Amino acid sequence: MATGTVITGVPPTPPYEPPRTSAVPFPPPPRMPSGPRRRSLFASAAGAVLLVGCSSAPDTDGTAGSPSAADRARARAARDSAGLVEHYDAVIAAHPGLAERLRPLRAEVVRHVAAFGGTASGTATPSASASPSVSVSPSAVPTDAKVALTELATAERTLADRRTEALLDLPGELARLLASVAAAGAAHVYLLTEGEA
């Protein structure tokens, strides 16, 4: 062969590829737990608290002598939240060991009462400052702390569900407020029942 001769018919060598050691290219991704993560629930609860601060301009849909449907819904939401505050107070009074766990949730419910234009006690003692729709006395709280938490979670869930159903009949600003408080209630249910499963 002469120098500088090109041999035709020989394919060029492909770029270098490392040899495969397995037929499976990568291990499967780790399985993620189902359901919401605690961090996302805290974030949504915090977002709900921020939304509670939205302005609540009174609606003028009612006639001069009677309150509008929105005013009635707002008053009922304030009463329901005040009743929930009393439920928290009763559980804390009956089970002081749960106070550290329940105080932050109770404080959020107190803010919900204020957002709806009601008033509630600022401390964890029963209060009659608002007329709640359901009152719970410490003697009505179950003696088993786990059952008391389950009942409190059920009360939160029932109220959150009722508020979610009422959204369609309310004007925009009040509907958004009610939706954010219902979302916070759903987060409370999760936090109250955490560890049961």
Describe the secondary-structure layout:
Elements: H1 38-52, H2 69-94, H3 99-115, H4 145-166, H5 172-193
Key terms for this structure?
mainly alpha, Ferritin, elongated, Lipoprotein
Describe it.
The protein has a domain at 69-193: Up-down Bundle (Ferritin), CATH 1.20.1260.10. Helix 2 (69-94) runs antiparallel to helix 3 and helix 2 (69-94) packs antiparallel against helix 4. It has five helices and no strands. The chain is mostly helical. The longest helix is centred in the middle third of the chain and has 26 residues, at 69-94. Residues 59-63 and 124-134 have low confidence and may be disordered.
Short structural description:
By secondary structure, this protein is mainly α. The chain is built from 5 helices and no strands.
CATH top-level class of the domain at 69-193:
Mainly Alpha
Structural class by secondary-structure content: mainly alpha
Mean pLDDT: 77
What is the CATH topology descriptor of the domain at 69-193?
Answer: Ferritin
Shape: elongated
Q: Give the CATH architecture of the domain at 69-193.
A: Up-down Bundle
How many helices? 5
What integer value in Å does the Rg equal? 29 Å
Query: Per DSSP, what share of the residues sits in E-state strands of 2 or more residues?
Result: under 5%
Order of helices and strands, N to C? HHHHH
- How much helix is in the residues? 40-55%
CATH fourth-tier homologous superfamily of the domain at 69-193 = Ferritin, core subunit, four-helix bundle
Largest sheet: none
Region (Disordered): 1-37, 120-139
Protein name: Lipoprotein
Biased composition (Low complexity): 1-10
Organism: Streptomyces davaonensis (strain DSM 101723 / JCM 4913 / KCC S-0913 / 768)
